[in-house]
Amino acid sequence: MDLVIRCGSLFDGTGRAPLRDALVEVRDGRIAAVHRQPPPALPGTVVDWSAFTVLPGLIDAHDHLTLDLGDEELQSREPEVWTALKGAATAERILSSGITTLRDCGARRHIDLQLRAAIAGGLVRGPRVLVSGVPLTITGGPCWFLGGEVDGPAEIRRLIRQQAKAGVDWIKVFITGGAASRGTNMLRAIFSGEEMKIIVAEAHEAERRVVVHCHGGPGVRHAVEAGADTIEHGVYFTDADLELLAARGVPLVVTYGVYERGVHSPDVPAFFRERCVDVMAQYVKTIALAREVGVRIAVGTDTVHQDLVAELRALIKAGYRASDALQACTGWAAEVLRLPHLGTVENGKVADLVAVEGDPLEDVEAIGRIRGVMQAGVVAKLAESR
Question: What pTM does this model have?
Answer without folding.
Answer: 0.96
